[in-house]
Amino acid sequence: MSSQISKIHFFLKYLLSILIGLAFSIALSVYFFDLYEHDAIDQLFLILVPTAAFAYLFSEFLARVKDLFRHSSVRAWQGIAISAFFIAGICSSIISAESVVIRFSIFIVCWVLTFSLFLPTLKALENAFVEDKRNLLTGWLTGIGVAFLLVSLFSEFYTEIYEIVILTFFFTLFCGLISYYLMGKIKHFLKYEIHARWLEMVIFVFVLFFGIAIVKSGIWFLSLSRADIFLLEANAILLFFALAIFSGPWLVVVLYFLENEGYSHRFRETRLFGFIRENLMGLLVSILFFAAYFILSSALNQLHFGTDDIFFDADAVAWRTRLTTHALEDPYWRAIHPLALLLFRPVISLIAILFKGNTLYAASFVVSLAGASCLFLTWIFVKKATNNKSYALLISTLLGVTSANLVFSALIETYIFSALTLILFFVFLQHEKWSLSALVPIGVATFGITVSNIAQTVIGLFVMRLNLKLVMRYIIFVLALGIVLSQAHNIIYSNPNPFFFVPSRVLYENRHINKITPRRAVVVAREAVLYNVVAPEPLAFTEGLPTPKFWFYKRIIIRKQPMRDNLSEYESIIGTVTAWFWMLLLFLSGIFFLRNFFLKSPKTKMLIALLLCIAFNLTLHLTYGKEIFLYSSGWTYAIILFMALSWHELAKFKWFRTVLAVFLLLLMINNTQFIFTLLNTTAPFVRSVQ
Predict the structure, then answer these.
(1) CB of 505 within 8 A of CB of 355?
(2) In Å, what is the CA distance from 198 to each residue of 10, 190, 654, 657?
(3) Taking burial as the number of CB atoms within 10 A of a residue's CB, which of 183, 193, 471, 479 is the most buried?
(4) Which candidate, 494, 485, 407, places its Cα nearest to that of 446?
C-alpha cells in the first residue's frame, strides 16, 4: 500500500513539474523569444526543450524543500500559497496576453516565483502564528495605506517600473514596521488609558480631519493644472497592491530578525528611543501637520504664479526663484536677509535628492518641515514648562492651526524660519544649563534670516539672565559672526544682496515706514493679535490681474478718487464667534499673567520676556510694513507661548483643556474655510492658463 502511495506521489510530483515547466517555457517563448515568428518544428523545440529543463530543475527544487514543509504548520504554508495566488492573479491581469493558455502560463510562472520567494519567510511566519501577533496584521494594513500615499507622491518624480517597485517594497516595509509598534501603543492606550486621556484622542481626531480637508483641497487645486498629479496609473496601482501583499511575509521576517537578534531590545535602551517615546504625541501631531503643509505648499507655489504679492504681500516668487534656480540676486536689493541663501540653499539641494533633483518640491518640503518643527518645539517648551502632555498637545496644535502658521508654512518665504529659530532660542533659554556657545549659533541663524529678529533673542536673554555683560558679549559675537558670514555668503553666491552694515541699504528700508495714526494702530492691533490666529474673510482683488491678490489690509489709490482704506472683517458666524472666543482667551491670559507677576511665579521671567517680544513687534510695526500679517509668524509663536505659560495653573483642570479643545475645533473650521477661500478664488485663473 505504501509503495503504491509513493508511486502516486512520484507521478504527481513529476506531472506538476512538467506542467510548471511548460508554463515557464510558453511564457518565455512568447514574450522574449518571438515564438510565432518560427516555423512549426522550431516552435515545438522552443517549447519542449525548455519544458524538460524547467521540469527537471523544479523536481529537484521540490526534493530540496520538502523537509521545510514538514517542519512548518499547514497554516503557514497555506498563507504564503494564498498570498502568492493573489499576487499571481494581479500580475497576470497587468500583462497583456493573446490567449487563455498564455495568460494561464503567466499566472503559473508568477505564482511559482512568488511562492519560491516566500519560502524563506516560513520560519518567521510560524513564529508569528505561535505568538499570535495580531498587531502585525493591523500594522501591515495601516502601513499599506500610508505607503500608497507616499508612493503616489513620489511617483511624480520616480516614473520607471523598477523605481515604483523599490519605493513600494521599501515604504510598505517601513510604514508597516512603524505602524506595528504604533498599534501596540494604541491598543495599550485604548485598554488602559482611554478614560483618563480621552481628550488627547479627540484632539488627534480633530487634527486628522483637519489635515484630510487641507490635503484634499490642495490636491484638488493641483489637479486643475494637471489631472494626474500624485496619482498612480491603473497598472501601477495593481502593481503596488501585488507588492504590498508580497511585503507582508517579509515584514514578519524583518520583525522576527529585529526581535530575535536583539536589535529591537538594544534600540529600546537608546536615548533616541527614550526621546521618541517621551515625545511621541508631539511627533505624531507634527507629522500630520507636515503632510497638510506640504500639499498646501505644493499648491500655493506652482510655477504659473509668476508675480510677487499674490498672498498677503509675500515675495514668494522672488524667494522661489532665488532658492530653487540659478537666479540668486535679490530683485529688490534688500539687506535685511544677509544669510538666507547660505542657510537655505544647501538644505534644499540636499532634500532635492529625494525628489530626483526637483528643487521646487524640495523647497516646499523644507518650508513645511520648518512649520511642523515649530509645533514640535512648542510641544517641547510647553511640556517642560507644565509637565502636562495633554496641555502641550493642545497648545502645539493651536499654533499649527493659526492662520499665520498655515500660510507661512506653505509659502516659500523666510518668515516661518524666523519663527522656528526664535522658538528654538526660547526652548534653550528654558534650560538652566546652557552656555553662550549654544545660543550664539541660533542667534546667528535668527539674525541671518531677518536682521531685526536679533532684538527678540536679546530681550529673551537679558530678561532670563539679567546680566548686561553677558548680553553685550552675545550681541557682539552674533554681529561679528554675522558680518563675516555675510561676506562669505556674498562670495559664495556672487553678491546676491547688499551688506546689512552698509548705511545706504539700511536706509532703503525707510520706504516701508508709515506714519503712526489711530487707523494704523487699529490695523496693527487687529492683524498682529487677531487675524494672525483667526483668519477673517480676505480681501481679494481680481480685476485686471493675471492672478488674484489677497490682503487683510490694503490702501488703494485710484486716480481722481478718494483713497480706499480696506480692512478685512469677519463675515461668517463661525468666524465672528471664534474671534470673540480668542479675544476672551487673550483677556484671560492677561489676568493670569498679572496673577503670576504679583505672586512672583517661577515662570514670570519667561512671561515677561515673551510679552516684551510681542510689544517690540507691535511697536516696530506701528511704523514699519504695509500688510502686517506678512510678518506675523515672528510673534505669533510668542503670543501662543505667553498664553500657554499664563494658563499653566489651569492646565491641570480637564474642564479648561476641554474649553481649549472646543476653541481649537472652531478655529480649525474657520481657518479651513479661509484656505478654501484662497484656493477657490484662485482656481478660475489657474484653469484659464491651461
Answers:
(1) no
(2) 63, 9, 10, 11
(3) 183
(4) 485
Burial of 476 by CB count in 10 Å (0-12 exposed, 13-18 middle, 19+ buried)?
exposed
Interatomic CA distance for residues 301 and 290, integer angstroms: 16
- Residue 353 vs residue 233, higher pLDDT: 353
* Predicted pLDDT of residue 9: 55
Instruction: Pick the range with the lowest mean pLDDT from 246-255, 435-444, 681-690.
Output: 681-690
**Which segment, 180-189, 216-225, 394-403, 512-521, is predicted with the most confidence on average?**
394-403
Q: Tell me the CA distances in angstroms from 106 to 89, 117, 165, one per residue in order.
A: 9, 17, 19
Instruction: Report the candidate in 468, 465, 403 with the shortest Cα–Cα distance to residue 606.
Output: 465
In one-letter notation, the amino acid at residue 381 is: F
Angstrom distance (rounded) from CA 658 to CA 664: 10
Selected residue with higher pLDDT from 91 and 687: 91
R_g of the chain, CA atoms, integer Å: 31
Residue 132 pLDDT > 60, yes or no? no
- Per-residue pLDDT tens for 297-323? 998 888 777 787 788 888 888 888 888
Q: How many residues does the chain have?
A: 690
Q: Are 406 and 311 in contact, with CB atoms under 8 Å apart?
A: no
Q: How far is CA 445 from CA 149, 330, 426, in A?
A: 34, 19, 14
Name the nearest CA neighbour of 516 among 609, 621, 397. 621
> Which run of H or of E encompasses 480?
helix 468-492
**Residue of 200, 180, 175 lying closest to 190 (CA atoms):** 200
The pLDDT-based confidence of 187 (bands split at 50, 70, 90) is confident
Amino acid symbol at 84: A
Q: For residue 124, give the nearest of 111, 133, 115 by alpha carbon.
A: 133
Task: Specify whether the CB–CB gap between 405 and 634 falls below 8 A.
Answer: no
Residue type at 307 in one-letter notation: T
Q: Which of 221, 45, 34 is nearest to 690 (CA)?
A: 221
- Partners of 550 in the β-ladder: 311, 540
Which three cell numbers mark 416? Answer: 516661518
Cα gap 124→122, rounded to integer Å: 6
**What confidence tens digit (pLDDT) does each residue in 524-541 have?**
899 999 999 999 999 888
CB 320 within 8 A of CB 413: no
pLDDT at 63 over 90: no
Which residue reads 523647497 in cell numbers?
Answer: 363
Which residue from 434, 181, 405 is spatially nearest to 290, judged by alpha carbons? 405
On the CB side of 627, CA atoms within 13 Å amount to: 22
User: CA-CA distance, 323 to 345, in Å (whole number)?
Assistant: 6
Can you tell me the mean pLDDT for 368-375? 95
Give the integer Cα–Cα distance in Å for 680 and 690: 16
Q: Are 336 and 500 in contact (CB under 8 A)?
A: yes
Please give the model's pTM, rounded to 2 decimal places.
0.89
Pair 353, 271: CB distance under 8 Å: no
Distance CA 523, CA 526 (A): 5
Is the pLDDT at 26 greater than 90? The verdict is no
Cα 320 to Cα 332: distance, rounded to the nearest angstrom: 14
Helix (H) or strand (E) holding 594: helix 573-598
SS3 of residue 539 by DSSP: strand
| Sign of the alpha-carbon dihedral angle for 602, 603, 604, 605 | positive
For residue 117, the one-letter residue type is L
Which amino acid, residue 222?
L
C-alpha separations of 527 from 54, 173, 261, 520, 577 in Å:
76, 46, 57, 11, 17
Among 448, 489, 447, which Cα is nearest to 328's? 489
Q: Dihedrals φ, ψ of 201, to 5°?
A: -65, -40
Tell me if residue 564 falls in helix, strand or coil.
strand
